[in-house]
Amino acid sequence: MTKILVVLSVLVSVGLSISAYSWTTTQDAASRLGAEQVREITFDKNSSNLSDSLKKDIREVINEASQKGKIVEVKILAWSDKEYPPENGKQTKQEVGLAKNRLKTLKKFLKDELKVSNVETHNMTERPNALQKLLNTNDAKVKTAAESTGAAPTDGNTGLFEMKAQASKASIMVFMKK
To answer: pTM for the full model?
Structure first.
């Protein structure tokens, strides 16, 4: 019994540190891009629905930002139920569609219910193509920042217990008027 408790204790501890690590990498990416506020949310598997608790989290981050000043833009990064694809990797049509639906749901909620006028979306099931990289498009910049900080780990780079996992998540980054 003692061995089981020790193993469970270690697993809970590792789980908490994994969650903290994931959050830190998301904050690093947001900071690198110039965001003032960031919130990471987790969707249920195979779902793009926003539960009441997810809506509450999103309202919180927008309200906190609004109290500090004028929101200029909100960027949303959304994953499917899989990690960011590795270099030259692709995800299935269903995974791409799931992330698109999550982005659509989040954008609609931000615009319609929270009256955020400028919302930019980034589908983290798709890597920037060569032209986007060459032109250094906004999508390429966001995905490069997320990948370089570890906030967009690939399937082959998730580490122990999927330490950098972002599958089923979305990051909401709030940019303020300077």
So the answer is: 0.79
Closest by Cα among 17, 44, 29, 46 to 161: 17
Q: Is the pLDDT of residue 160 over 90?
A: no
Tokens 């006028």: give the residue: 117
Single-letter residue type at 98:
L
pLDDT band, residue 31 (cuts 50/70/90): confident
Tell me which residue of 30, 39, 15 sits closest to 165, measured CA to CA: 15
Question: Within 10 A of 46 (CB to CB), how many other CB atoms are there?
Answer: 10
Torsion of CA 16, 17, 18, 21, to 10 degrees: 130
Strands 169-176 and 37-42: antiparallel
Give the count of beta carbons closer than 10 Å to the beta carbon of residue 152. Answer: 27
- The arithmetic mean of pLDDT across residues 137-149, rounded, is 86
pLDDT average, residue stretch 63-70: 94
The predicted structure's pLDDT at residue 169: 92
Counting other chains too, the contacts that 128-137 makes at CB distance below 8 Å and 24 or more residues apart are none
CA distance 167 to 174: 21
- 8 A C-beta contact, residue 155 and residue 83: yes
